[in-house]
Amino acid sequence: MTIDQRRRAVGRRIAAARSERGMSLSELARRASIGKGSLSEIESGQRNPTLDTLYAIAGPLGVPLTALLGEEAGTEGSGDHLLARVLHVEHHPDGATTEVVWLTVLPGGTRVSPAHGAGVTEHILVVEGELTAGPTGAERRAASGDSLTWHSDVEHTYRSGDVPAQAVLTIRSPGA
């Protein structure tokens, strides 16, 4: 799939999720704190959204990130100080979703992630480097081999040390 095809597919998934919820373009833009014109360009496939933008949109829609980004293994996204590659997405019989993502957290800044839906939990295993992550104001440090778990229904952050941190992130979203 080309970059243009991926961008259009993301736009179609956002528009479909918005339509399924009976939400207007203006309402989603307001709730996601992005411009209506920007959202329109994303939905039409004219603009490539960052991970930050996709997270901002996923929250008000009440869907996991991969519902917008794509669930195929190898699907990639990037944002400020963060690169993500989907490893696996599992849909459970009770409606819950588990997303497994390979993260590279780049040095030089903090990646702030908006709150996800109620009951969403994140578990991160640091494979290489050091990472400070968790709910804003309650972050904890983890070195290679360490893991952290938190409820991500509040704003949370990721920050690496002086070198990029490599980690496996598991996000569990409860069923409806």
TrEMBL record:
GO terms for MF: DNA binding; DNA-binding transcription factor activity
InterPro entries documented for this protein: Cro/C1-type_HTH, Lambda_DNA-bd_dom_sf, RmlC-like_jellyroll, RmlC_Cupin_sf, TransReg_Diox_bact_type
Protein name as annotated: XRE family transcriptional regulator
Keywords: DNA-binding
Span of domain HTH cro/C1-type: 14-68
Annotated Gene Ontology cellular component terms: cytosol
Pfam families per UniProt: HTH_19
DNA-binding is among the record's keywords: yes
